[in-house]
Every structure is written in C-alpha cells, then in structure tokens.
Amino acid sequence: MPAKVAVYRKEHFNAAHRLHNSAWSEQDNDKIFGKCNNPNYHGHNYELIVKLVGEPAADTGYVMDLKVLSDLINETVLKKFDHKNLNLDVPEFKNLNPTAENIVIVIYNLLRPNIDAQLDVQVRLYETERNFVEYPI
Amino acid sequence: MPAKVAVYRKEHFNAAHRLHNSAWSEQDNDKIFGKCNNPNYHGHNYELIVKLVGEPAADTGYVMDLKVLSDLINETVLKKFDHKNLNLDVPEFKNLNPTAENIVIVIYNLLRPNIDAQLDVQVRLYETERNFVEYPI
Amino acid sequence: MPAKVAVYRKEHFNAAHRLHNSAWSEQDNDKIFGKCNNPNYHGHNYELIVKLVGEPAADTGYVMDLKVLSDLINETVLKKFDHKNLNLDVPEFKNLNPTAENIVIVIYNLLRPNIDAQLDVQVRLYETERNFVEYPI
Amino acid sequence: MPAKVAVYRKEHFNAAHRLHNSAWSEQDNDKIFGKCNNPNYHGHNYELIVKLVGEPAADTGYVMDLKVLSDLINETVLKKFDHKNLNLDVPEFKNLNPTAENIVIVIYNLLRPNIDAQLDVQVRLYETERNFVEYPI
Amino acid sequence: MPAKVAVYRKEHFNAAHRLHNSAWSEQDNDKIFGKCNNPNYHGHNYELIVKLVGEPAADTGYVMDLKVLSDLINETVLKKFDHKNLNLDVPEFKNLNPTAENIVIVIYNLLRPNIDAQLDVQVRLYETERNFVEYPI
Amino acid sequence: MPAKVAVYRKEHFNAAHRLHNSAWSEQDNDKIFGKCNNPNYHGHNYELIVKLVGEPAADTGYVMDLKVLSDLINETVLKKFDHKNLNLDVPEFKNLNPTAENIVIVIYNLLRPNIDAQLDVQVRLYETERNFVEYPI
Fold first, then answer.
1. pLDDT at position C2, please?
2. 0.80 surpassed by pTM
3. Cβ contact (<8 Å) for C38 and E89?
C-alpha cells in the first residue's frame, strides 16, 4: 500500500501594499491599521511555501516534480504578484484588503485548480520573519 | 462561508535555567540531566511562536491584529520570562522542572485565557535551533 | 491528566545521489529527472527533523531525552547516510530511486522500531532550503 | 593597552520603492531597471546591520551599549524609513534613485553625526537575502 | 567625490565531490580526509556570495546591476558546477583536490576576467552552514 | 605563489551570565545594565565563528583541517563555557564583566596560542541574532 508524503516548495516575491478599509473614516483606518495604512504604501519580501500531500508515483518516486511545481507557482502566482503593488496591480485586491490572511487565500485559490485534484494543497505565507499565515486549516 | 486561516507571531526571550529533580540524588540528577544540571545554571535564547486559528474578520481581514498579539505575548509571557532565571524568578517553576516541554505548557496556560475563546491556540518553543517543542497537539 | 507535547530534534548529513529509473531509456530519464540524472552524481546537505509526540514524564519533564534521541538518530540513520553515496553505499536504495520522498520513508522505517511505541513519530527532510518533504501524514 | 572590538546591531524596516531615472525615457528606464521600475512601486523587508569599532570601556565592558545604539537607529533611521515609500516619503530620495547602494549611503550619513567620533561606523543593508550592500569600504 | 560601496550577490549550487590525494596511500588518504575520502563521493548544497567593490554610477545608482551579476555567475560558474561531480565533471579539479579552499580560488579565477577591472572582487563559499571560506584576502 | 584564503568554523554554546560592576552601587548597575543585571542571571545560545587566514597546503588543499579546528575549539573553549555560568564557573570572568566584548577577547586569548603562528585568527561571537561582536580588528 503506497504511503502519503507531504512535499513542500518555497518561492518568494517582493511587493508593495497598503492596509485600508474604504468604508471607514481615515481616523478609523489609522487607529486599526496604524503605519500599515500609509497612503503611499510600504512593502515586503514575501516568502511562500506550497505543501502538497499525496502518494509518490512508483516509477518516479515523486509526489509531484518540484521543478514543475516551481514553474506552476511562478506562472500562476509570481507573475501576478512579484514587483507589484498588490492594491493597484492585482485585480483580486481591488475590493479586498491585502492582509496576509487575504493574500494567502487568494494564492490558494489561484493554485488549487491547477494542481491534480488527488493532491491536498496548503499554502504558508511569510509577510516578515515574525508574521506569517497558513491556509487552509 | 468564511474560511479558517492560521496566523503566527514569533517573539523571543533570553533566560537562565537548570534541570533538576529535588527528589533525586545528585548522582541521579547528574546521570539524567548531565550538564543541564549545572547548579549555577546555564541559559538560552528562546524563540517562541504563537499560532492562532480562526476566520478573518470581514472588515479588517485579520484573524487577530498581530501587533495586538505581540503586545499580549510581551505583557503575559515575556515580562515574566525575559532576562530571568526560570527556576528562581518564575513562580510556575518553583516545583516544576523547566524543561522545554514544561515551559511550553506554562506559556500556553498563560496565554489561553487572554485570547478570544473562538480562536484555537498552539505554542512552539525553540530552546535551540536543534531542540524544540509544541503544545497542545 | 497529562498533556501531549511534540518534541523535535534536528540533525544533518551530507550525501551524494542520482535520480534514475533503470527501466527507462536514457532519453526518458533525462526528460523526467533532468540534471538530477547526472551519471556522476551530485549532492546535498540534508537537514533532518524528527518529531515525537507523547506525554512528558512526571519525574523528568521529558517526552524523550533529546540527547538520547540525537544519539539514536546518529546510530540508526546518520552512520548509514552521512558522507555516503545513497545509490551505491546505502542498500535500501539499490532498487529504490533516492528522491526526497523515498529517503524520508526509509529514514522513518529505520527509526520507528527503535522508538517507544507509545510515541508518535514523524520525519521532515530538507533536500535544499526550498525543497522538503514530510512523512507520515 | 585596550584592544579594539567590533560590535554589531541588527534592525529591520519594511518599505516601498521604485527604481527610476527621470532624465531617461520610459523605454530606457524599463531596459535598465526592468520590473524594479514598476510605476506603482514594489517593496522589501530591509535588514540593517550597524557595525561600530572601538575600545571597550573599562568600567562597563561595552564599546557602546547596544540598547542605546538600537534606540539611536530607531530614532534616526527607522522612524524615517519604516512602513514608508522611500521615493515619496523620504526627502533624501526626492532626487536620488533609492537603489540599495544609495540607501546605505543615506543611512550612514544619518547615523555618523550621532555616534561618538572615536568609533568607526559601517552599515550593511540587505534588500533581500540574496542582494545586499555595505558602506563605507 | 563618489564613495565606494560593496555589493553582494548570493547564489547556490548542489554538487558531489571527494577529497583525495592520488600521490598518497589509501591509508594516508583515510587518515587525513576521513569520511570525506569516500570513493563513491558525498555532496553539498554550496552557497556562493560574490562581493564587488566600486563607485555607484551617477545615472543608475548601481555599482553593478545585480541581475547582470547573477546572470554572469550562472553562466560562468553554476553551469559548470551545479548538479555536477566536481572531481569527474569539472576539468579544473582533474588534478586539484576539491577542498572548499581550492573551489573558492577556482570560482574567483573564473569570475575575475569577466568583471570590470575597476571593481574589486571577493568570493565567499559555504560548504556547510558551519564550514566556509573566502578568497582573496 | 600560493594565495591566502580565509577559512571559518562555526560552533555554539549555551551559558548563563549577569552584567555587573561590583565597584558600583546597585542603582548604577541597574541604570547601566538594566535587566542584564538580574542577580539570578539570564542566558544565551552563543554562536561562535573562528576565522583563520593562511595559504592552503599543496598536498591537502587545506589551510587547516576544519575537523581539527572544531576539536580544538571544543577542547579549548566549549568545555569551559558550554552549559556554564560565565560569572561563577569561568575563572576568567571572576573580575571581568562578561559582556560580549569581553567574552570574545577571552575566547581569542584561549585559542591564539593553540593555533599555528603563521595563521591569522579572528573570532566573531553572536550573543543573539541581533547583537554580535568581533575581535581583533
């Protein structure tokens, strides 16, 4: 009986963003988001780890070729996010606050349809070394 | 339907400790705890990662503001542990051996009552880069 | 009621390997495994993290003495793998492709019989900082 | 005779920026700066290491109290740079392209007058883990 | 007067090697090189940091475009070394023992003629996180 | 003509310490050393990097066998410092405040007489990831 193994691939991208809720007053935005609400944006080196769970194929010994997974992450996620302003350049955040929580959900939704349905997918996103998120749970 | 996301915050503290069981002979303490039983103490740079699981709020996009979580960890844990001798300065270890396992349980019990009951809490503690623990499972 | 805690120990080893399926043509090996199929081998600094889950003993505060676990990993795994050619020097890979997935399963199977059956065991293996695997799930 | 020792303090800040030369055509900016020329900015987690060289004082054993150095870096540099857009929010870059080279020179010039003239000062700045700079040489 | 700045670019490669002196007996090779003398090779994830020192150009703010430096390292060094057996696949080590010291000298000699003579070049090579070398001094 | 190469070996130790000047009042000690003056001590995971500069030998390709250097650091430094209280257990600090600056000078003085006089020696000591020192300059 084949055994399930988790495989992980780490990638990174650099982006600008601003945390803001347009339904709120500037005062409330400032109170809740503090310096993350700077109207001229700030930015991060985001680290992204994609986890797949499945059975290694008998002939290759791979759950998925991590070079192929890396290419897929580049094509599906990094081309949209790397060296971009998440609020202005990425349509998914036109009406969605680009918190780490919302970014990781968007990334998962971009990747999931492009990965074999027999594999479980989970995404971890580091906004800084000290603040990071994971989805789904 | 909102989705559950895990958020993580990393903090650190520096402390001295000694592993010792006062019910044992010195010989037994030495046999079991080795150089960790040095009566004059040794110390570590502890790294602490607190994980919360919950649904991001619709208006903020936050499971919990990690700045607020950081302040809470500082107030609840770091003020008691940082630059302290765990055996002598922290009452919880008066009769409890400050192994990494026992420290992580104490930290969880300090944090849990101060965090929204709807959020799951888990704590990881690095004693060194090579030895670390997690609670609860 | 005692509480379950996870304890982790990190070790490392350096090894050479080659990805290859002897049932395939050279052309197919080259297509699937690319430069990892180099007949003269390449190599890695593997990082290995062993996770045990159990209840800390009342008298020691340890799930397992991590010094003892470290010695066990050295005796059971590192002596076989460190500064070795996985394909040529490690019998387990005589007919098994040494992908990270297969290596982590082999390491788990070497460790599991040597660890208290009341403890759960899981192994994570880093082939590079960007590619890593975990077993079992 | 007292001996010279180097002491180092590491800090970090998060900022947005854009590489651009307003004297050039858009075509030339795009050719030279590529995706770093995105008009909507991108960003980084900058890591900053300040090195001081001097003789430890006989009574304290300190070249300089690193807590005081940390406070000085926060007051002099981080308040101007953290969670800011370097091009728009930091006057020093109004007419200066915020490359890592130019940022590290600006940071040095902000710090140097605030540090005891008997101490040598050098600054290292990580724009990413893979790209970093140092000044002066 | 323009100021000199150091810029650094980090790259990596994975390779197999063996330490051996063919003029010595097997016994002497074993005594000096120990397990690094395994005839079937072992391997490493090498980390390579190239440092250039020069004046930033007035129009770009760059000492050298690190994307161009990265491409140059890839073309000049990584194509020869990555996923290779240093002893068998890299002609420079046909009669030269591939210690970290000798590898870093070979890498420097490959890079130096391809970099602007006005820039100083220095190379650091990590064989493991704990063992690394630098050349020239 | 042989070329000079720097070789580095990284080791670590865990120790307790307290910063204190017995010639001062408690009030002055508290003002200058703050929480580092805790009479019950605190502690650190110290990381130690020893750098040697010399010419690689023609027959080995080594400046110095880093396994031998590691053994020497263990014998000369780590046996005295690891899992110790620097103030109480290490005679060198009986009348010397164990600041990072003073520790790195003591370590250098322990190592220097045991290393070939033709090799230059420099020591870097990390007290935390954010605070570190180097000697000599």
1. 65
2. yes
3. yes
